[in-house]
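note to self — DONT lose this again. spent like an hour looking for the file last time. sequence + predicted structure for the chain T wanted, 256 res
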Amino acid sequence: MTDTTQRPADIISSITDSPLPNLVNAADARAAGRFGYDKPTHENSIVLLVDHQIGLMAGMRDTNSLAELKSNVVGLARTAKALGMPTLITSSNAQWQNGDNLPEIKEIFSDQPIYRRTGIINCYEDPTFRAALESIVEKTGRRHIIIAAVTIGTCCALPTLSMLNDGYKVFPVVDACGAWSRYEAEAAMSRMANAGAELMSTFALACELQADWKRPSANAMLEPFTHNLSEYGFVLQNFWNNVNGHTVPDPFGVVK
């Protein structure tokens, strides 16, 4: 009979390990008829924050709460900032009913201009905004586009379709977008995915971009997780509150 009290020693990976690349590159995988995993990284991607304006945000009805939507948007912005990713911010008719961009975005990117569109709905069709995007592409060679926008059916879906048409790899961050209704959100997500976009959520994307918590950006990347993904933030805070000398004594003696 096996002695279940004796386990083999755990095998712990080296702290000098780095993530391994796939054995086959994305182009060769596609040529072989498989999915080509051409992932976004902090080195190959540009972030577009489109029309997260206070007037538009107030009308979103597809999410559990506007607080959750805002937290995801700010978490995405903080992620882009923590990883030093080129980021473009734009607004649509801010001088009228749509209002200004979220103040948190303006604070996080206080050194970045906002591209104020004055009527063109699809930001990729706006000459000034496209020139700014193409300038970054030309300087950096980055062609992976991470986009979030309000609303998802227009401000996200329309430029996503345009950029897919023009050969970009596009990753819409759907929980940092908002919609007038659930129908709009579902239709937009279906349309973008069927066209070849890869839909993401804010903190799954953040993990994919960080890739390894041993990387130097780890400390900076804890900020969006702590402040904007409260479920995980509470786990982190609770652990550090109790590690090595519990802040709250355990009268039952369970915590060792």
